[in-house]
Amino acid sequence: MRILKAHIRHVDQLSSLAVALWPSHSLEDMRCEFTELLNRSNTRIYVCAVQEQLIGFAQFSIRKDYVEGASCSPVAYLEGLYVIPEYRRKGVARALINMGEEWARGKNCLQMASDCELHNDTSIKLHMGEGFREVNRVICFLKEL
Prior knowledge:
Number of helices: 4
Strand order of the largest sheet: 1-2-3-4-5
CATH architecture: 3-Layer(aba) Sandwich
Strand content: 15-25%
Distance between the termini: 51 Å
Structural class: alpha+beta
C-alpha cells in the first residue's frame, strides 16, 4: 500500500472513486474536474494504491476566505475523502490525511477544516478520531423564485 501525490495518469481511477463518494456527479464531470484540480497550486490530491489499483483518495485545498470555526488564515480544507469499503479501518484514511496535513504545513496552514452531511455518522466518527472537533451544525435552505 502506497500513498502518492495524484497525477494525470490517475485521473480515470480517481474519477471512479469520486463518483462513489459523490454519486450525483457523472464520471465525465469528475474527469474534467480532477484534470483541472491536478494543475492548481492551492489543491493537492493524494491517492492510495495497492499495486496499480487505487483504493482511496483525499482532496485538499487551501482556503483564504471564511472557514467556519477557524481562527486564522489560510486554512487547509479536506474537500473529500474516500476509501473503498474492503480497505476501510486499515489506516488508509489516516495515512491520506497525514499526507494532507504535511502538505498544509508547507503551505503555512495552522489549521485544517472539513465538513460532512449531518446524517453521515461514519464520516463524523472518522473526523473525530482524526482529531477534528465539531464547530457548527448547519441546515441549508433553498427557495425557488
